[in-house]
Design goal:
The chain has one domain (2-117). It has helices at 6-21, 26-38, 40-57, 73-83, 108-113, and strands at 2-5, 59-60, 66-67, 87-90. Strand 2 and strand 3 (66-67) form a beta hairpin. Strands 1-4 form a two-stranded antiparallel sheet. A two-stranded antiparallel ribbon has the order 2-3. Helix 3 (40-57) packs antiparallel against helix 4. It is mainly α and 126 residues long.
């Protein structure tokens, strides 16, 4: 069991999507697939939070596309960060980075983003 906040999950989403495309050992692929499925409700809640904050700070253009005006971008980011501090317990037993196999590729930044998945990584400033 690991505890993570919504902000960490928000940042991890693109890395998870990338991991879904990686060639991983079957056992590891199954674990990550289960994790992502287990996080589905949390990601739905994160989407609701993001939609709520966008509705406060964004403006819709003539094509119905939302844009955050530059003058409120800082406030938008601060509001998102504040609302994404909710912590949840995730049913996950940390794995080793070796469990990703020899074919998986992650950048240092991506590895840091999902470091909560591993028992052999230390937080770094990236």
């Amino acid at each position: 069991m690991v505890t993570v906040n919504f902000e960490t999950l928000y940042r991890a989403y693109p890395v998870f999507m990338d991991l879904l495309e990686q060639k991983l050992p079957v056992n590891t692929a199954l674990k990550i697939r289960k994790l992502i499925m287990d996080l589905n409700d949390s990601y739905k809640e994160i989407t609701k939070i993001q939609d709520a904050v966008i509705s406060i700070y964004a403006q819709k253009d003539s094509d119905d596309v939302y844009h955050i005006p530059e003058e409120v971008e800082g406030a938008y980011l601060e509001e998102m960060q504040n609302r994404l501090q909710k912590e949840i317990d995730v049913d996950w037993e940390e794995i080793s980075t070796d469990d990703l196999g020899k074919l998986a590729n992650l950048t240092v930044k991506e590895l840091e983003t999902v470091s909560f998945l591993f028992n052999d990584t230390k937080p770094a400033a990236v």
